[in-house]
Structure formats: C-alpha cells, structure tokens
C-alpha cells in the first residue's frame, strides 16, 4: 500500500517533535523526583512508588532553584542557535540539520543519566549543549514542511505535524512520572534517548528536503505540486542565496510573530518545565499523579491544535475570511483565554480548580498554531527557515520565564501565584501587539527575483508560490536574474 510521501514527512515530523520537546519534560520530572524532600507525596491516583529505598532510587541534596537554572541554561543555548539553525537549513539541508539535532540531543539525554550523579557542573554543561542542539530543530523542520506543503493542505499539514510538539509534554510528563516512580529514577532518560536515536535514523533514511529530490514521489503527487505552482524536476535544486536581512528585521508583521513567540515560549516553558514543581510545592502531590495532572492540559491543547487547524484551513480555502483575519482570530482567541485562566490561578488554592483552569487555558492556546506558528509560511515561504529562526530568537522568553521561576519560587503556593500573575500580564500584552501588527499576506521583500538557483531553472519546491500559472511563469523568469 502506497503512502503519499508528504504524509510520511508529516508523520515522521510529528514523532520528531514529540520526542525532541519531550526531552525537556522528562528532565523536569526527573528533577522534581530526585530533589524532593521526601520521595513520596499525597497519593491521588496511583499507588506509592515502588522504587523508594531501592537501588533504583536517588535523592540529591541540591537546592530546588538549581533545577530551574538548569532549564535557564538549556533555553540560553536554545536561543543561541535559532538563527544559525534557520541559516544552515536554508543553505545546507533542512532534513539533515533537523535529524542531526535530534540525534545529538538524544545522545546527550542518555549521558545526562550518568552526569546527574557526578554533580551540578556536569548537568549545567549537558543542558546547555542540549539547548544548542535543539535550538535548530524548529527552524529546520519548518524548512522541510514549507517545501512539502501544497497551499490547499498547508495549514492542515503544519498543524498535524506540530501537534506532536504540543502533545509531547503530555506523553513525556505522564510517561516519565510513571517510569520514574515504578522502574527507576533515570529510566525515562534512557527510553527517550534511545527512541530519539532510532527516530533520527528513520528520518534521514526516508525524508528528503523537497519533493523533487524524492525518487519515490508518485506521478499523482507530482501533479499536485505542478497544479499548485511547483516545477518538480530532478535536475534543479534551489538554495536561497540572497536573504533580505534588513527588510526582515524591520518588518512589523514579522515582529508580531516574534512577540507571539516570546509570549508563547514564556508560558510554554512554564507549563513544560515548571508546572510539575508547582504541584509539588503547592499541593505536595506524588510524582506519578503530578505526571497525570500536568499531561491533561497538553492533551486538550493537542486536540484544539488539530481541530483549529482544520477549521481555519477551511475558512481560508472557502474565502470566508482572509488569511490575515484567520491568523489574528486564532492567535488572539487562544492567547486571550489562556491569559485570563493564568490570571485566575493567582486566586486558586486547590489542585482541582487549578487543573481545570490550566486545561481550559492551555487547551485553548492550541488555536495559536493556526496563528503565529503558520505565519512565517504566509509572509515569505521561501525564507521559512530564516523567518522561523528570527522569530524564534524570542525563545529568550523561556529563558526569562525559567529564571523568574527560579528567583521567585519558594516551597509554597503564594510564590507561584506571583509567577502566574507576571505570565498573564505578558500574555495579554502579546495579544494586543499581534492583533495590531500581524499579517497573513506575502511581504514585498519576499521577491522571487532575489532567489538564485544551482542552475537556470527554478525549483519552486522550496518557494511554494501557490496559485496561478502566470505567477509561476513570473517567478521562473525572475530566477534568471543574478541577484
């Protein structure tokens, strides 16, 4: 049975993001466990951990704030390679950059299981290296998905693939909570590290940077790309040689994506890396139940990501609303509800109500995948790798988020309420900025005449201008100009 090659890209991309983002959640759960004053907490849903007091148990006498700073170092490395990652993906190979990054981070995760026993300095080094490796993942993957997504399927393909990113914390938090409690304190590090190595091998073996480079592309799929503006020929391989840096860096629509990313990373880092500690500090809950509670909002968010992507894709396709309107509605609704729910957490003092608010807020934030996340493909699809790299420099929001949590966090609920108040204010400001300055239209500086190719014929696989054949002819002619 033949599976369309673009679907293989989506499926493998889904699992790649599922694993790479899961590495962060796994580490956070391990830290919550080994740094607890007691290895048990109030039992909610599961029996007491079976490894307590055995050789598979571990207790470290470190300050809990250290674990927050481990995450800060990770995100510092993560930010540092965002732009280089986009640049390398555009100039070399999106497929290889993504695959190599996940492979590297997977190996480091396995090494981390041994380094934790050796002391704090080694963990700081490994976490920084992991951040450097994972920082290139999303810019590189955006380059691959940009090349493979026809316009009629763009939002759907992107949202399905990126749903792995949002489902990742749910799977990782729940799985690591259970394995840490019932197998060994470091079992989740080995499991995720091993799966990452296997995935990397499969990815580089089956995925190609563009449809034209795939020898197994069916005639039916070739027709899809030809119909929507692609020239799919085996002889031309385009590499972007001109990048309009000044225009990009002064673009208000791109700055809106940057702000959206900043706010998203502030809260996403808090949910993935800090929420387990919130339940441990505020409600003294056992580690397995923490994994369950923190996974629920992520599951709901994943559902909203997929459903929202399909709905907004259809609204754009039917021309019910413009692309710009779709992006703004998706973004502002998702962030607006999440901002309100995080603000209400300031007044909450029981874990059930906290869970409900987090489920609603984090769940609705899944709509933003149809906003800022898809947006770079609207503004300049041929520069999707670079735009993603620029916008994701805003991952500095995750650096600030983890640092603030480490600085303000105490072993009580009131300190977390202050952390939530700051996050809600930042989120609200992000809603306002994106609503004013965002755009869903191709930007003037995304000029096809600025592209150069390896030969005289332009390959549009990495420059998906979908639509009229006249526009395709214009782009092909413009490619002959030496920029």
TrEMBL record:
SUPFAM superfamilies named in the record: MFS general substrate transporter
Signal peptide: none
PROSITE patterns assigned to the protein according to its UniProt record, in alphabetical order: MFS (PS50850)
Single Gene Ontology MF annotation: symporter activity
Subcellular location: Membrane
Membrane-topology descriptor: Multi-pass membrane protein
Pfam family, one: MFS_1
Keyword Membrane: yes
Segments traversing the membrane: 69-89, 96-116, 128-148, 160-183, 189-207, 248-267, 287-312, 386-407, 419-437
Major facilitator superfamily (MFS) profile domain: residues covered: 8-442
Lipid biosynthesis in keyword set: no
Domain of life of the native organism: Eukaryota
Main localisation: membrane
Gene Ontology CC annotations of this record: membrane
Keywords of this entry: Membrane, Symport, Transmembrane, Transmembrane helix, Transport
Name of the protein: Major facilitator superfamily (MFS) profile domain-containing protein
């Amino acid at each position: 049975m033949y599976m369309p090659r673009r679907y293989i890209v989506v499926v493998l991309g889904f699992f790649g993001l599922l694993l790479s983002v899961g590495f962060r959640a796994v580490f956070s759960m391990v830290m919550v466990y080994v740094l607890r004053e007691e290895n048990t907490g109030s039992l909610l849903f599961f029996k007491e951990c079976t490894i307590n007091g055995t050789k598979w148990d571990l207790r470290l006498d470190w300050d809990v704030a250290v674990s927050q700073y481990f995450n800060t170092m990770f995100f510092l490395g993560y930010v540092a390679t965002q732009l280089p990652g986009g640049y390398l993906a555009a100039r070399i190979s999106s497929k290889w950059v993504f695959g190599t990054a996940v492979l590297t981070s997977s190996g480091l995760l396995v090494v981390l299981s041994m380094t934790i026993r050796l002391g704090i300095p080694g963990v700081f080094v490994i976490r920084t290296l992991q951040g450097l490796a994972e920082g290139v993942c999303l810019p590189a993957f955006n380059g691959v998905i940009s090349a493979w997504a026809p316009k009629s399927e763009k939002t759907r393909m992107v949202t399905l693939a990126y749903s792995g990113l949002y489902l990742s914390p749910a799977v990782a938090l729940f799985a690591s909570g259970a394995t840490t409690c019932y197998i060994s304190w470091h079992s989740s590090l080995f499991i995720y590290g091993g799966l990452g190595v296997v995935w990397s091998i499969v990815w580089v073996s089956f995925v190609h940077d563009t449809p034209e480079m795939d020898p197994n592309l069916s005639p039916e799929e070739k027709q899809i790309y030809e119909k929507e503006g692609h020239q799919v020929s085996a002889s031309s391989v385009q590499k972007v040689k001109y990048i309009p840096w000044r225009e990009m860096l002064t673009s208000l629509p791109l700055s809106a994506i940057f702000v959206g990313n900043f706010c998203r990373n502030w809260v996403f880092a808090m949910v993935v890396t800090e929420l387990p500690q919130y339940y441990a500090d505020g409600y003294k809950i056992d580690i397995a139940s923490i994994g369950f509670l923190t996974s629920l909002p992520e599951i709901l968010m994943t559902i909203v990501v997929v459903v929202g992507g399909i709905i907004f894709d259809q609204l754009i396709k039917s021309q019910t609303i413009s692309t710009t309107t779709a992006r703004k509605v998706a973004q502002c609704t998702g962030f607006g509800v999440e901002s309100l729910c995080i603000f209400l957490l300031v007044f909450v003092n029981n874990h059930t109500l906290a869970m409900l608010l987090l489920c609603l807020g984090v769940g609705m934030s899944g709509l933003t995948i149809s906003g800022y996340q898809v947006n770079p493909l609207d503004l300049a699809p041929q520069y999707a790798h670079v735009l993603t790299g620029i916008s994701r420099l805003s991952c500095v929001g995750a650096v600030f988020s983890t640092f603030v949590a480490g600085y303000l966090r105490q072993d009580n609920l009131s300190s977390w309420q202050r952390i939530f108040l700051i996050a809600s204010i930042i989120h609200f400001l992000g809603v306002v900025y994106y609503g004013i300055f965002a755009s869903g239209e191709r930007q003037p500086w995304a000029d096809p005449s600025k592209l150069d190719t390896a030969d005289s014929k332009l390959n549009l696989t990495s420059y998906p201008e979908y639509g009229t054949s006249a526009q395709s002819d214009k782009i092909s002619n413009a490619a002959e100009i030496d920029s």
